[in-house]
Design brief:
This protein has 188 residues and is of the alpha+beta class. It has a single domain (31-186), classed as tt1808, chain A, CATH 3.90.1570.10. The protein has helices at 3-9, 35-52, 107-119, 170-173, 183-186, and strands spanning 16-19, 22-25, 57-60, 66-69, 72-74, 78-82, 95-102, 126-131, 136-143, 146-153, 158-161, 166-169. The strands form four sheets. It has a six-stranded mixed β-sheet, sandwiched between helices. The chain has a two-stranded antiparallel ribbon with strand order 1-2. The protein has a two-stranded antiparallel sheet with strand order 4-5. Strand 1 (16-19) and strand 2 (22-25) form a beta hairpin. It is globular and about 45 Å long.
């Protein structure tokens, strides 16, 4: 299926991604969004939406698609596109940031396959992979020589995103969530 055929077809009851020309239910890649996943997603959208109000950048939900190749359409949990608003489209234009909320069932795909696909997108400047089981985020910045990863841990961390004129405080993103103790926490 081509991306154009996919966009005509996609009026289904559940969200799909186009992977190598084949429609794949997004929920098949995960067991269903957990409360933590949903909370982190909403918190990211609220934080970015408030900071970006009045600018040319705006966050969107996973209802908006990102074309990562000629045969692949992904639906990141949060996408920030900058530039003119294009109405009546299913695709993000001038995408600067994507946020993938990695759940235990999706972390392998989010950190490998999707990450590499996102890196190929020509307008993307930042890729943020967030965890739901701990206040941890991995940010990839596009630089002239490639992508530079940066790890953020703990509720006191703040992720600066000058590419879109915003920042994300992990305390805000993980607001209203609690985390189980990790083995590494006990070693400190």
């Amino acid at each position: 299926m081509t991306p154009e055929e996919f966009f005509v077809w996609q009026g289904q009851d559940e969200p799909f991604e186009l992977v190598g020309g084949v429609p794949v239910p997004k929920r098949r890649m995960m067991t269903g969004a957990s409360i933590q996943h949903g909370r982190v997603t909403v918190n990211v959208i609220i934080s970015l939406g408030n900071q970006l109000r009045g600018s040319r950048c705006r966050p969107t939900t996973d209802d908006v698609s990102l074309r990562t190749s000629i045969t692949t359409i992904r639906r990141p949990d949060v996408t920030v596109a900058c530039g003119e608003m294009v109405y009546d489209t299913h695709e993000a234009r001038e995408t600067r940031l994507v946020v993938e909320i990695a759940s235990p069932s999706t972390t392998t795909v989010d950190r490998t396959v999707k990450l590499e696909e996102h890196k190929r997108h020509p307008t993307l400047r930042c890729i943020l992979v967030r965890e739901t089981v701990a206040p941890v985020a991995l940010l990839y910045h596009r630089e002239a020589e490639g992508w530079r990863p940066e790890l953020f841990e703990g509720l006191e961390a703040v992720i600066d995103l000058p590419e879109i004129g915003a920042s994300l405080a992990l305390a805000d993103i993980y607001d209203d969530l609690t985390f189980a103790a990790r083995i590494t926490d006990a070693m400190r």
